[in-house]
């Protein structure tokens, strides 16, 4: 087999895989899947799932299909509105669909999940959508008097409690 034939064969193999991934991706998006793993559906733990060949990850195809997942996420976030981007209850469904999409593509393309390309995609998403979100409001410091009483009260009570224990034990003797 000549180099040109090998290259043509490899290109054809990639094209066929690309088409099958696109079909599976389209089918995956058209069906609604619950965000739940049921006890009788825990086949992700079986060893046959690990027999998938992860020897060659098509990173360029992963970037292309990851871009499709990104576009779907962008559309759903645009519909949600910028004022709701920091409300996790509103965002979680879209984020879950994005994660499922990326996981599916990685599996179909023979890529480990997570990987460098996926990490870059999620960092980009977090920078665009969630960088202005505050984690939690910082709690104000307690007043100095409350801190002082909370610290000194147990310290002063310990000798009193020790005295009572010693006094009660001496009464028994």
Concise summary:
It comes from Sinocyclocheilus grahami (Dianchi golden-line fish). The chain has 173 residues and is an all-alpha fold.
Provide key terms for this protein.
DNA polymerase, domain 1, 2 domains, transport, 173 residues, 66% helix, Receptor activity-modifying protein 1-like, mainly alpha
Description:
This protein folds into two domains: 3-130, DNA polymerase, domain 1, CATH 1.10.150.510; 142-173. It is mainly alpha-helical and 173 residues long. The longest helix is centred in the last third of the chain and has 29 residues, at 144-172. It has helices spanning 3-30, 59-80, 88-108, 116-130, 144-172. Residues 33-38 have low confidence and may be disordered. It contains five helices and no strands. One of its GO terms (molecular function) is coreceptor activity. Keywords: Cell membrane, Disulfide bond, Membrane, Receptor, Signal, Transmembrane, Transmembrane helix, Transport. One of its GO terms (cellular component) is cell surface.
Q: CATH H level of the largest domain: which superfamily?
A: Receptor activity modifying family
Computed Rg:
29 Å
Shape annotation: elongated
Low-confidence parts = 33-38
CATH topology of the largest domain: DNA polymerase, domain 1
- The CATH class designation of the largest domain is Mainly Alpha
Helix tally equals 5
**Into which percent range does the helicity of residues fall?**
55-70%
Average pLDDT works out at 78
Proportion of beta-strand residues? under 5%
């Amino acid at each position: 087999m000549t180099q040109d034939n090998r290259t043509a064969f490899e290109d054809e193999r990639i094209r066929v895989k690309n088409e099958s991934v696109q079909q599976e991706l389209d089918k995956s998006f058209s069906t609604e899947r619950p965000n739940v793993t049921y006890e009788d559906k825990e086949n992700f733990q079986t060893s046959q799932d690990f027999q998938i060949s992860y020897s060659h990850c098509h990173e360029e195809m992963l970037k292309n299909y990851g871009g499709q997942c990104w576009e779907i996420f962008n559309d759903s976030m645009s519909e949600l509105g910028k004022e709701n981007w920091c409300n996790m209850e509103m965002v979680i469904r879209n984020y879950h669909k994005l994660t499922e999409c990326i996981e599916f593509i990685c599996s179909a393309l023979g890529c480990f999940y997570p990987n460098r390309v996926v990490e870059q995609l999620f960092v980009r998403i977090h920078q665009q959508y969630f960088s202005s979100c505050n984690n939690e409001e910082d709690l104000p410091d307690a007043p100095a008097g409350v801190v002082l009483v909370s610290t000194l009260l147990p310290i002063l009570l310990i000798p009193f409690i020790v005295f009572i224990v010693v006094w009660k034990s001496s009464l028994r003797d």
